[in-house]
Amino acid sequence: MSRKVQHYSGIGGQAVLEGVMMKNGDTYAVAVRRPDGEIETEMNTYRGILADTPVKKIPFVRGIFVFIDSLVLGLKSLNYSSSFYEEEGEPSKADEAMDRITGGNGEKFFMGITMVLSFALAIGLFILLPWFLSEQIGGFVRNQSLIAISEGVLRLVIFLVYMAAITLMKDIRRLYQYHGAEHKCINCIESGKELNVENVMKSTRFHKRCGTSFMILVMIISIILFFFIRVDSRLMRLGLRLLLIPVIAGISYEIIRFAGSSDNIFVRIVSAPGIWLQHLTTKEPDEKMAEVAIRSVEAVFDWRQYLKENFSSGEESGN
What we know:
The chain has about 325 residues and is α+β, with helices and mostly antiparallel strands. A 4-stranded antiparallel beta sheet has the order 1-2-3-4. β1 and β2 form a beta hairpin.
């Protein structure tokens, strides 16, 4: 059986609270299902840090900035979606005080704090904890290769247990359904099908160009690098793990970027762990969730013109 023809669309996004954010170039849209059942859509632009600078075009360097941009935009989108579900009321004294201190930029300040804490948690849980535990194993095992392997295995196990644990939360499972709706929309149009609820629901919820795939690649590449880069000093070993984070992110980004526009045997092998992990981080959405995701796509992307330009030769049927 021949593989389905797919064309890279260039759009991407993420799930938010009761909605989906889609981004195309510098334009993004957040579509949210409001408590009253209506769909609210907001369009905006986000150019990112170091926009239009040569740095953003340097392979293996641009990845870390793209990663930071995705975190910033993701938090902005989440804040917007959550605003529909916040209880009405007067601002607290703490909010008023923070606005005075920051010159009315209290929300941006808290978003920055959230990012810093998120980074600290991720580094502590997935970098420092496996390193610390492997160092304890070093008191019983003298083989440095085994210690390096044990650190990698611990890192992967902690990551997978964490991902599986948060899936048990009801709100996270619903978020993962919207994540599935986002992927289904992208797969629908990249397979040459008209963007409607019926076609979206028939499309797969797994996609190579996904943040989940990026995360598992970061884990795998960190295991490989830390296995081969060794020093005697414990302090140096710890320092290298922190200093190499941008390098690992840069390599992972380039692989994801290549995988998103290619479909050879190497790409399918490299993408396999990320696709497997998406069994945890994406769930099958319902039709109402698909409607929200479609609204977000249509706000930033002319899918009809895209299909005309890429599938006019009849590579795929419209339905």
